[in-house]
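To: structure subgroup
Subject: Chain for Friday's discussion

All,

I'm putting the inputs and outputs inline so they're searchable in the archive.
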Amino acid sequence: MTNRRTYWSIDKGESLNRWGLAAAHEQYFPGAARPMPDAVDYRFINGWVDTGDLPCREALRELLGRREIAVPDGLVFPEVYLGGDDPRVDFSTFRFRPTLVTRWLRCSLFSDEAQTITFTVETCGGVHIWLNGTKVLQLDHYQRNESTVQPVSFDVCAGDNDILVFLEDLHERDTSCYLLMTLVKGSNLKAGIELDLDEQYAKEIERTLDGLRTDKVFYHEEMVRIVADYLPQVPVKVRLDTGSHPSETVTMNVLLDGMKMDRDIAFTVDQQFSVADLFDSTGLKAGCVSLRFIVEVDKTCFSRTLGTTLLSPPQSMHMPELAQRKLAALQHMLVTGKDEPARALAALAQNKNLELAERIIQKALVPVHERHDCADFWILPLIWMYRSYAGTLLADDVWEQIREAILGFRYWLDEPGDDVMWFWSENHVLCFHVAQYLAGSLFPDEKFSNSGKTGREHKEQAFLRLQRWFDSVDSHGLAEWNSAAYYPIDFLGLFTLMVNADDAEMSQRARGLIDQIFIMVALHTINGVCAGSQGRVYEKELLAGPVTELGSIAAVAFGGDWYPGYDRVSALLALSDYEPPKAACELLQVQQGQHIYAKYTQGLDHNAKVTLWKSPSVQLSTVSDYKTGIKGHQQHFLDVQTNAHAMARFWINHPGDMKVWGGSRPSYWAGNAVHPRVAQYKNMGFMIFDHRAFPEVINFTHIFAPKLVCDEFVVEHNWLFARTGSALIGIFASSELQPLEHGLYAGYEWRVHGPQSAWVVMVAEMDEYESLADFQQACRSRGATFDAQANTVSIQHDDGAIQLSYQQGLTLNGELQAFAPLTVVPNVALNDGELKPWTHMNY
């Protein structure tokens, strides 16, 4: 074993985020199947739900009481973990089945003298630490996604001190798995990794990987290239991992797709390096993909993962008639798309490509039988196809397999299970209830093997549950408002119910809610991009422009550009007789010289107050007064989208994670570490961030502003102005905007540092101004100011003096502007007219 170590200094307040990493050990860990209490109250929220211990975690707790963790013989650490800007050692990810993941990590501490040092250790799982062979900490927390912090003090000797860490967590779908080890006492220390290579070379590798970035954030049928912000003194050979790809039985695409290619891609970064071609994106599937870069030296592996967006040419859905668009979508699905069961349903409906249908069905049956999380999404098309085509088109044994899957599925908490299927969010509750209702309808006299109930009992139970779900949504709206990721899941359940329910009232309730969702989609869609504030969002939707499943649905429903591979619900829409309300088509595109203003609420007890201002070229959308000042999850508060470019999208957030394209919730761009105070008055949006109560969170807010796709772009001190086509955007920040000079988002990101910050966003049409400079002058003349002591941001609007107070809310000329109307039905005004329910508008 080598004694060569590479060291980095570590000071108080800094964390150990460079480690030698052993290969992870993964174990399927289900526990004993049992029913669970049905505690779903149909008052849906976004974020963490305390479900209590599932069987897998009960089994883990039983294991903890009887096991001893000893250091294994022959541990090797072939991989180097480099944390970069993230102080955590982060392995957060998504697993569809209960999986116990164990890792061993190693580093060294060098001290100039013998001393007592103290770290704080934070994790959600279990951490054991050995110093020079002696265990100094055993922290068996294991509370799913709930962290604990514990100090640990130990005596180090002068010279090298070896630290060995056992890190373990039980992965139940989305899992916050990390170690944060922060120095709070100690001096003259260095942290290092034992490596069989020169110290300077190891640091050059780290700097090289840290400096890699794609030359663009978005690619349109062009070469994807890599550039380097750092050129090493010695050449570093880098390889792109082209073997990574998602499982073909993944039931929900919550993670980025990896790159899978049949050739090796490598390049060398040296002093003469300028740019390297990675691959031509022409013909590749549109969407967000991960790019993992690897440096291998002998048996040691360094790596870094980035993400980017590919925008291949879409299929045209500009036919004037909905029936034409439906037919075109179904025909496209026969030849291209993901292997999802809705695509098999489309093939059966057309009696074409039946081999494709059978192959997809066989893949779909695996996660349904194994009860992967999100299997409720996949069983719905299987039920639909069995109801419509059983005994025809495919071999009898295929239909028998589907029948067995339906009769053996776990439809609710009160049935035995050892899985980690999620029964608590509004979209899953709907899908489980629809599946149970329709399965019971199919087999009324059969006994279902998992529950022991008859189909008739299942149907009766599900009918009552569905009524509760619809009653809740009628009263509160949808907690996952505007979500490009989760509206499609709502549609999945609703379309399946609307088409297949044998109860006319139930079918009509589904149709009515589909109408209302399409109204909200139309309001927040511009030039094919479904945007706006959102109840839940991922970076892969924010940075994908039109390439989302919701965008695919909108293209078929309204006409536009359609991207194959995001067609799960498009298939169901195309197979149904559904037509969106005429009002939705009118609200989709604002006529020249006009604008619309919409206000309504969504979420529990009207807690999400949604406002939209939309003109022909630009839309501004916010959610107001949403749980201000608490730690956040995946909520997206303010969003600007223009029609000149699909990727001309602007938003502001408080990052929850420093790892770009990371798996945390909130992440770097999606969600907020601490919720801001937000308000909107017509075409002005206001945000005040205050995270003084949480000193541990990231200490800046930032804006995503895609300079490279704008026609004009100006940043001056604390103002940012942009023009894309005929859309004008003006943004005031409470202090000087700091550009990101290096890194993936250089040219797209500006930061405001400090525990308090305020932002004002204004949008307008070009025909109101002579030039961008004229718009700049008009914005500046409004006298935007931020009073940090009072925690207020103020500006002059044409209607009077506006002030947003972090404590009191929005005032106009000193009068509090209470949000109205408090209704889940979108109210819309044309120009400056009266707000009316969309059902009362004249189109």
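Points worth raising on Friday:
The radius of gyration is 27 Å.
The first helix runs from residue 55 to 64.

D.
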